[in-house]
Specification:
Distance between the termini of chain A: 76 Å
Number of strands of chain A: 11
Oligomer: homodimer
Order of helices and strands of chain A: HHHHEHEHEHEEHEHEHEHEHEHE
Helix content of chain A: 40-55%
Radius of gyration of chain A: 25 Å
Chain lengths: 333, 333
Amino acid sequence: MGIQEIATVTGLSKATVSRALRGLPTVADTTIDQVRRVADELGYVPSSAAAGLATGRQRAVGVVVPVLDRWFYVKALGGVDAELRRAGYDLVLYNLGGPGGDRDRAFRRSMLRHRVDALVLLSLVLDATERNELQLAEHPMIVIGGPAPGLRNVGVDDVVVAGLATGHLLGLGHRRIAYVGGQDEAGMNVAVPYRRRDGFVDTMRAAGNRVPRGWLVDGRFSFAGGIAAGEALLGSEVDRPTAVFCASDEMALGVMTAATRLGLRVPEDLSVIGIDGHEYGASVGLTTIEQDPEAQGRVAARAVLAEVDGARPRPVPPSPARLVVRRSTAPPR
Amino acid sequence: MGIQEIATVTGLSKATVSRALRGLPTVADTTIDQVRRVADELGYVPSSAAAGLATGRQRAVGVVVPVLDRWFYVKALGGVDAELRRAGYDLVLYNLGGPGGDRDRAFRRSMLRHRVDALVLLSLVLDATERNELQLAEHPMIVIGGPAPGLRNVGVDDVVVAGLATGHLLGLGHRRIAYVGGQDEAGMNVAVPYRRRDGFVDTMRAAGNRVPRGWLVDGRFSFAGGIAAGEALLGSEVDRPTAVFCASDEMALGVMTAATRLGLRVPEDLSVIGIDGHEYGASVGLTTIEQDPEAQGRVAARAVLAEVDGARPRPVPPSPARLVVRRSTAPPR
DNA sequence: GTGAAAGCGCTAACAA
DNA sequence: TTGTTAGCGCTTTCAC
């Protein structure tokens, strides 16, 4: 049940069958038809391993995610996938698995085995060792989200985006603004949270506001983390911020939930703004800086595929993001 | 930069190098050390294609998802992934991409190319053609969620689970209960929604309650869909249900949001119960039937890996699910 | 438009 | 414990 059987049945050579199966132009149309028919009858299944060995191309792209269950990663993954499918490429998923997964082994063991022709990294900053190891494999690489020293990068400018959000709150008249972001999660080495925090702090300072240390809170980029952060921030009546800027919508939803639970009304008692454009946010009136991770995924996939096809890597312009004002932000009382 | 170079440098044969690299017991420890060292120095990267060709094993498993951005699929995918990583297998993701993606091509073109040793299908029911095509590839297969004619299946018993939820509401004294589920989404051929609806209807009828047609609503298994369903169901003051059973937590969260927006209090004016155990639900007090898709993913992965290793496929017992009562359900007024 | 032959990089008998 | 020899199933020159 290989190409050979088809050759035998049709009386053609393996070479011609191979060409016919791929629809190469140097093959007679009648031959192509015949080969295809016989292949179907025989239930022929091509072997990508054999093809890969012969050509050196696997027609597969690896996608590396820090963890799976975050809105942004899932959306971006979907975008990469859509583009790969269009191009007839398979997608190999490398999930570093957050805290639990031993990142090292994941990197060495699988990603380097020439199983893929290119790599798309989600929000990851590689250290020197990792870069060296990946370099060995010599495939095209690109990073989605977050700056990437030495690598191409697609995504929004996080500092700018954070400034935008902060500026919106300042423009409404808020001065007492808290930030809910994240830390580098368990060695996942993600730079995004820090860049957004910097954008926030810089914008606040530039406008002449102080940023109390206690108002830079870790929300772990999750809904539950947002709730915890919100409760910490809003629990006491004294010295409560009038607005909270969250580095992701998931955390913003958590803060809104915490606020409601504490009897605060949004936006009358508290303004909340997030980043992302999460569907839930639209439904509950969350003001946000909207971005399109799916589009970013598609762009990234196209970029590496082009490079696989021999194109010279060109830098990708920053992805668009825009302020979407909804019901969760208003002037302070 | 293949195994050959290492052989040349060390003065050993390709065969020994191959064995050493894999740490086979028939190789001298000193040889293993030496080979590993030289391999490192040379920056050797193994070729999974070559190994796959030679052994017929790709050390990769395919996971087929109908769409990517649903809580259940992401969690289950994570579970499968964790187990595969443990076993040193790669995960190839086949996303049917919902309505847009042309399911046929996806099936033929990629999944059958012997790129993977086994397949895990998420919530998919295959039609005869598809089953035949996949059968060609002859790899072990298993389905997570939903019954699978002719295939092994891991997951909760959806009829039972729906009955449990419905029973909880009935037990509280509700009689006017609506159901929010889903349809077969754009040919994705997912059976779960129907099974849960059946469980609901059967339980209602058995308790002597009628189920108006208009109270079986499509919530598209999404948050937004849940909101729409909730608005349709609760919009008019006359003939409003006192409780809603949603076939997923995401929809239940939507219904709760719609209720709040319409000025109804949960649970005073409306009880809501879901299925899943979604993190957001815990935070907002949603009563639910909790299941563990990640565990289901691990079980499924283990099952197919065992089969790849020659084990006889044994049926998997139904996965556990349990009622978690929180604040969203109460007796009707 | 088609065929013959070499080889992609590894593993797996079988010998030694 | 190590080496020799065949392939695994394709693609790809180079001839015809």
